[in-house]
Amino acid sequence: MAVYTPRLSAVSLCRLRRPAWAVGSPMTKTLDRLIELVCSRINAQAVCNACRDGSQCDICGLTQRCKAANSPSILLSELAVDAPAAKSSKASRN
């Protein structure tokens, strides 16, 4: 499998840097931990259903949650770029 290095926007980089400073950890380790946290709360069944690489299930770890049918607290729609929930919560803060 090819290695993919995601590019972060300036805003995302700024947002990642602050929690990294707060916990005294490098941004790479902070990003890893944030991904772990999101994956522990995301709708695992929806992710598994949309998966395009079934060869990595043992590494991903979401398959065990799919089988256990845990209820999600983060919906995939909340992760979508320009998600309506993100816009409405931003508007309510103004």
Describe the structure.
The protein has 94 residues and is an all-alpha fold. It has 2 domains: 34 residues; 34 residues, no CATH class. It is 65% helix and 0% strand. It is globular and about 35 Å long. The C terminus is likely disordered.
Major sheet characteristics:
none
Helix amount, in percent? 55-70%
- Structural class per helix/strand content? mainly alpha
- Outline type: globular
Overall domain count: 2
Q: Output the helix-strand order.
A: HHHHHHH
For this structure, the quaternary state is single chain
Parts with pLDDT < 50 across at least 5 consecutive residues: 83-94
Beta fraction: under 5%
Q: Work out the radius of gyration.
A: 15 Å
Mean pLDDT: 78
Q: Ends: how far apart?
A: 44 Å
Counted by DSSP, the helix tally is: 7
Q: Tell me the number of strands.
A: 0
Break the fold down into its secondary structure elements and pairings.
Layout: H1 10-23, H2 27-41, H3 44-50, H4 57-60, H5 62-68, H6 76-79, H7 84-93
Helix pairs in contact: 1-2, 3-5
In short:
This protein is an all-alpha fold and 94 residues long. The protein is 65% helix and 0% strand.
